[in-house]
Amino acid sequence: MITIKSEREIALLKVAGNIVYKTHQYLKPFIKEGITTNELNNLAEKFILKNNATPSFKGYEGFPSALCISINEEVVHGFPSERKLKNGDIVTLDIGACFKGYHGDSAWTYQVGEINEEKRYLMEHTEKSLFIGLEQIKPGNRIGDIGSAIEIYARNHNLGVVKELCGHGVGTDVHEPPDVPNYGMPNTGPRLKVGMVIAVEPMLTLKRPEIYLEENDWTVVTKDHSPSAHYEHTVVVTQDGYEILTGE
Asked: Can you say how many angstroms the Cα of residue 196 is from the centroid of all Cα atoms in its chain?
């Protein structure tokens, strides 16, 4: 069931979202060649706990870490490890924080050192596709309007849309109804209403969109090993549009 959040709940979701935002900002200076993904994960977990929250993903359906850290061809759900970031990598940090029972969720893709033009193009237009999708959020519009806008933008820029993964509602669970696909038809799906809280998160690929699941049953990788980027904000539907919760 899609829930409409009260003012009290939205206030708590704003705090959770802001902790996620601050965690991203805290980690950015550490995203350099030579750091391990475990080190980034540990920094994030300590920072979230210091801000009176808990990592949303740690233990979620058995996920072992505070962060999902996905590098290059990894689309989502990469496990932190002793793997070191290299110059030319792109890395997605997917961060969730739970504050007094309410969650914030935001993913962002970062460059490590100097990256090639193809990866720069992928990052630029995946980020832009997020905001193209967000522009469709206002009372009376439908979930399909968001996905359609993202899909059209991605295809116009020759990027692949991963259809097996999608955005979602956010509240007392980090993943709630409704699903928010990154493709679809306008004027289809659930209608947006004031007080709905959703995470919109385009996951686009430089080449083909086909994916496979690694043996750990979590990490999703592009079949052709082309790079993937992922941008996500949690937002609340307002009277005149939307407000980003995973920001300042």
From this structure: 18
